[in-house]
Amino acid sequence: MSNLNGWGLTARLISKHFGALGNRVSEAIANFDPETATEADRDRLADNLRSAAQKLAAARTAFDKEAGDVVKLRQLIATDEQAAGTLAERLASGKIAESTITLFCDELEANKARLPQELQEEADARQYMDELQTIVDALSKQLSEFDAQAKKAMQALASARAQQDLQQLRADRQAQLAGLQGMRGQSSALAALTRRADTIRNDAEGLRIVTDIGQKPLEQAAELEAIRKSVGQPALGNESALARLQRLSGQPAEPLALAKS
Questions:
Q1: Which spans of this chain does the record mark as coiled coil (predicted)?
Q2: What pTM, to 2 d.p., does this model score?
């Protein structure tokens, strides 16, 4: 007896603790992958509905059989009751044996005695069928409500994930902007690039100054040449030897006729 008690206690402990472990594992899976857990719950409800529907189909078949048996038995009893008067006349006229009438009466009484049992079996089959129908209706409603709630939950989950993605993008953008702002003040590469640009700009300015200085005498010479041309000064290349001597000695140039005389 103590062994039986020990085994009973062991079975209860296993059922209790491993059952609780199974519940915790199921909760962990549901938290980790709610979509798959939801599909598993729906599959379980659908399996229950399918099983109940199969039992309901079998119950309907059984009820149809019981109801058919009752109809047949009632028809048989009604037919035999109608035939009883005719058989009485035949018995009185000696056209049928008494033993046959006795067998007929035994069957009629047996059928009448069996009718309440057949009616009870029909009623039991109907009750079982109606209860299964109630269960199927409840499971169908439960599955429909589950689908509606699951749809809302999935929509809420999708909306929450969209918001999460949006906020993550905003956070990433802020981090990128903050990084760019930090680079403006702290990047050694940007600082070196700025210094390089300043050096090149200063070199270009120095070259411009030197070029301007060298360009000024050229511009002045060109200006003087333009003045000489504007006052009609003869070109030195056409000057005669006498005119050149006079010019160099500082004497005024004589007219060409006097010089020939």
A1: 105-163
A2: 0.52
